[in-house]
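Example A, followed by Example B.
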Amino acid sequence: MSLFQQWAFIVKEALDKSFLVAKFFCGVHVANTYLCSTALVQGPSMLPTFSLTNELVLLERISTRNGKAGTGDVVILQSPENPRKFVTKRIIGMEGDKITYIVDPKNSDSTETVIVPKGHVWVQGDNIYNSYDSRNFGPVPYGLLQGKVFWRIWPTSAFGSIGRRPESVDPALKVLEQANQS
């Protein structure tokens, strides 16, 4: 075997391995962009569903791309005010829904009613006393939804499925639910 043949063999093997690695990363990119990915959830706005500390969750992207995300689903969305930031909220209303919400739950019981415009959703954190959500920035364009959270990975003590709607023990949420049902 000549020196040229040896080098040709080494180059061929290196190219084959490089293409295999490139295919793997292309597959990971497609899966992460269009199918399923992970996200880190933190902050007080989604208490009690998520804790204050970092929680790692899985989100699927197919539902939001096909218009199948609905009321009660926990979603990751691009912030309408800061495009570099992603937030976790629960969908409270879809386009055409009449939403009655407490304007400032910390200080008063005054409510306002809005109708969610076409192509938009109304999102709120589960902890309405400490959440910056549609009550502050209004309805969110459906296109800002990045994915629907469906599984908690970390911490392992809370490993499992994410429910559609928490059992509400907050009296302000009960008032909102009763007003939205009527």
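Example B, a separate protein, is given below in the same form.
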Amino acid sequence: MGSACIKVTKYFLFLFNLLFFILGAVILGFGVWILVDKSSFISVLQTSSNSLRVGSYVFMSVGAFTMLMSFLGCIGAVNEVRCLLGVYFVFLLLILIAQVVAGTVFYFKTGEVKQEMGNIVMELIRNYNSSHNNSAQNTWDYVQAQVQCCGWVSFQNWTENAELMSSTNITYPCSCKDKKQVNDGPVMGFCQLPSNSTVIGNDPEYWPVYEEGCMEKVQAWLQENMGVILGVCVGVAVIELLGILLSICLCRHIHSEDYSKVPKY
């Protein structure tokens, strides 16, 4: 390979690593978002499930490691250091294999994830306490109000809440209220309708709430976000593959190493 081709390969590898560094930062940022987000359904899962919290740390670790590898790749390419290119190639290959394995495992465990999601929400509904103020309850109220749904499978899921069903008047979750029937009032806790002598106890059939559950809408929302995540991961994998090929090509044509080119810190 001529010197001109080596130069082109070298700077192409540098540009790919620059893009790789940015994508690594995106993965790192996504992991941080999962950990600190308090205003979406992710917050409900994050406070109730250790697996999602562990997943966020995995994303952060992979993102940080990816950024480090791209930095080594940039130095190895620009300064033509064969040793760094070799280390870069090995670790890049390991990251690519890990991504494929993680994606395969996640695909086959999708059913378990959905089941765990349902269990988390149902436990939250059963233990919902209108006198307590915590982030998981507030987030679920926000989800129900914004998505315009009630409960997980249907509004009947709220009949499993002991505090709600112990009321002697028509009482319902405020965040579930159907705005076509009730226009004002709070969106957290439980709301009461004016007492009606013809209705005895808290009959769910008289609740002015959305009857549709949140399961399908929340899963659709997560599916959309998963599409973004998978898109980023596929983009990273393509860049990794190109980086591997370019690093092999460049490494094969570097016959001598000048370590004086490596920047000293």
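On Example B: Strands lie at 171-173, 190-192.
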